[in-house]
């Protein structure tokens, strides 16, 4: 409820500008990272929002995957200690998305009666449970971190869908006789604005990610919850908001309500995060620094008697109402929940995964053992977005719930590119002293290490094996060495041996003709065949022929999946990558 005739506070206007600038930067980095241009030039550019995330830093430190670059998150903590939760109100891309959606769809919806002050305690309880689980090596905080949610949702769902949508519209316009559409399409493709197309065995395009619709549905659910309360996620569920709220309790700059307050309830109804509540035992309202996002909307727009001022002073009291922070019993309950869930997840992982094999096809450079990788991985989807062949996808729960949405290879869709972050010309010229795995370059926590080109070539993801019941030469006697030809390693990991096999053309002949062939062949061996019979035998397809049968050189194969991806057999390929044995993991 804005106060009529009074201009908006300059800092409120500046906040909106900052939100849009940071949101545009976030989207621009999504595009540049998907194209590979940003990450190859500047290692930390694609990660800038994640490496400044305090929840990622805290969770990674506890889970054992901390990288020194995450110390940049202390800047965000310092900002929150100065201006309460300014990061949430000024920078967070998920918060900005919520404000935009709220402005478009729920602007005239009255939600002032949906107070539910105790709901906001949940974010602090969730934060504590996630921290306890991280101490056990479970990286569940990546499921709930708002920057991970935004990166995952936009990068592996909305952006690829938008890319395909724009392409479809321009193609339809071109078919409709609009030459400008064709020119625009060609320009965007040549300028690498569009995600590059590729001929994948399955999936059709490099923009179809497993779980895409799930991520979209979860994001839509978070946004739709604003129909009940403004910034429902930020108020009640966001663990990063809870962490920054604790830092904000030290902030000297906070919303303050003077004695002129008439308890008209305008501040509570107008504040999008519910930072104003009636003070217990007093006839006025108070501002809560932990819930404030420093938007400066309250100072001029809400209060009809100008009783609100955001200013410096003593940081106490922490909260104006007891409903803001959970009780001691609730804190202990949250800690106990985390302490119980973590061992349960670890047991689930152990029972699902086979002890003799590595549970997943992990990106080259992924921490080992796999439990260490899952503790350090924050499920942000950066590696999936940067993978140029769309080979990395969110995993399911095949090796435990704790591994949900961690990256794994699906070789029927893509393969691990041997020349991922470097050009072949640079390799031929000996310029291989830069990291060559894009997935490692964009990983913000060090869950995927930087690998030089030679290291990446030797890194074993798995080992290719032939299914002789499906491989064309082995199963059908047909000529095919596609896997050997496409193997990217300089010393091919697939070779072949030539053997004599039954000729399929001979088998296609009717049985009487085959009997006649064998009769003539026997006569020829006994030197009793006439010239006419020799000519007759020559005109028939030979009974046997030489055929190249492929096989894998296990000591050379790095499991990149190229052979499985290019195998022309429909459905499951005649060659596939199998998981490594524990003894093969170095």
How does this structure look, described?
By secondary structure, the protein is mainly alpha-helical. It folds into 3 domains: 10-311, no CATH class; 370-458, Alpha-Beta Plaits; 463-584, no CATH class. The protein has 28 helices and 10 strands. Strand 2 (276-278) and strand 3 (285-287) form a beta hairpin. The protein is elongated, with a radius of gyration of 31 Å. The N and C termini lie far apart (63 Å).
Write the layout of secondary structure elements.
Blueprint: H1 10-35, H2 37-41, H3 48-51, H4 54-63, H5 73-82, H6 86-90, H7 93-105, H8 121-135, H9 141-144, H10 146-175, H11 179-190, H12 212-224, H13 232-236, H14 239-248, E1 254-257, H15 266-270, E2 276-278, E3 285-287, H16 298-301, E4 308-311, H17 328-352, H18 370-376, H19 382-386, E5 392-394, E6 407-409, H20 424-428, H21 438-442, H22 453-458, E7 463-466, H23 472-476, H24 482-486, E8 494-502, H25 504-507, H26 511-525, H27 531-539, E9 544-552, H28 562-566, E10 575-578
Helix pairs in contact: 1-10, 4-8, 5-14, 8-14, 8-17, 10-11, 10-12, 26-27
Task: Give a concise summary.
With 586 residues, the chain is mostly helical. Helices cover 46% and strands 8% of the residues. The chain has 3 domains: 10-311, no CATH class; 370-458, Alpha-Beta Plaits; 463-584, no CATH class.
């Amino acid at each position: 409820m804005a106060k009529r005739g009074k201009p908006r506070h300059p800092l409120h206007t500046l906040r909106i500008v900052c939100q849009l600038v940071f949101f545009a930067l976030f989207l621009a980095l999504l595009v540049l990272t998907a194209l590979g241009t940003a990450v190859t030039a500047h290692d930390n550019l694609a990660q800038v929002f994640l490496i400044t995330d305090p929840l990622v830093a805290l969770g990674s430190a506890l889970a054992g995957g901390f990288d020194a670059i995450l110390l940049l998150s202390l800047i965000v903590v310092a900002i929150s200690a100065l201006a309460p939760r300014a990061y949430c109100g000024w920078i967070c891309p998920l918060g900005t998305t919520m404000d935009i959606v709220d402005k478009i769809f729920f602007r005239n919806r009255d939600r002032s009666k949906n107070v539910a002050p105790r709901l906001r305690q949940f974010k602090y309880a969730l934060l504590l449970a996630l921290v306890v689980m991280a101490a056990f090596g479970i990286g569940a905080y990546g499921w709930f971190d708002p920057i991970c949610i935004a990166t995952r949702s936009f990068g592996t769902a909305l952006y690829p869908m938008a890319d395909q949508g724009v392409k479809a519209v321009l193609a339809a316009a071109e078919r409709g006789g609009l030459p400008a559409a064709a020119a625009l399409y060609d320009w965007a493709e040549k300028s690498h604005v569009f995600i590059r197309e590729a001929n994948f065995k399955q999936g059709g395009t490099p923009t179809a990610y497993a779980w895409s619709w799930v991520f979209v549905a979860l994001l839509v659910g978070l946004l739709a919850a604003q129909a009940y309360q403004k910034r429902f996620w930020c108020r009640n569920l966001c663990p990063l908001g809870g962490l920054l709220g604790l830092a904000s309790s030290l902030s000297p700059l906070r919303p303050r309500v003077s004695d002129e307050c008439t308890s008209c309830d305008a501040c509570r109804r107008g504040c999008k995060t519910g930072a104003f509540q009636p003070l217990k035992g007093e006839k006025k309202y108070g501002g809560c620094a932990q819930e404030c996002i420093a938007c400066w909307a309250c100072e001029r727009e809400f209060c009809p008697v100008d009783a609100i001022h955001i200013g410096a002073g003593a940081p106490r009291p922490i909260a104006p109402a007891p409903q803001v922070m959970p009780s001691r019993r609730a804190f202990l309950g949250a800690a106990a929940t985390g302490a119980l869930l973590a061992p349960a997840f670890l047991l689930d992982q152990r029972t699902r995964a086979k002890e003799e094999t590595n549970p997943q096809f992990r990106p080259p450079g992924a921490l080992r053992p796999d439990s260490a990788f899952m503790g350090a991985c924050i499920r942000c989807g950066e590696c999936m977005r940067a993978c140029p062949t769309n080979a990395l996808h969110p995993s399911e729960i095949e090796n435990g719930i704790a591994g949900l949405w961690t990256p794994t290879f699906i070789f029927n869709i893509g393969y691990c590119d041997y020349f991922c972050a470097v050009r072949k010309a640079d390799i031929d010229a000996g310029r291989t002293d830069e990291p060559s795995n894009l997935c490692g370059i964009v990983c913000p926590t060090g869950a995927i290490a930087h690998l030089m080109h030679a290291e990446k070539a030797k890194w074993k993801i798995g080992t290719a094996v032939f299914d002789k019941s499906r491989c064309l030469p082995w199963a059908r006697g047909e000529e095919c060495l596609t896997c050997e030809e496409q193997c990217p390693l300089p010393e091919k990991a697939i070779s072949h041996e030539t053997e004599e096999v039954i000729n399929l053309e001979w088998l296609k002949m009717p049985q009487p003709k085959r009997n006649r062939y064998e009769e003539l062949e026997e006569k020829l061996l006994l030197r009793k065949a006439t010239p006419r019979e020799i000519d007759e035998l020559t005109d028939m397809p030979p009974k046997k022929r030489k055929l190249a049968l492929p096989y894998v050189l296990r000591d050379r194969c790095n499991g990149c999946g190229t052979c499985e991806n290019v195998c022309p057999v429909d459905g499951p390929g005649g060659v596939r990558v199998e998981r490594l044995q524990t003894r093969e993991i170095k």
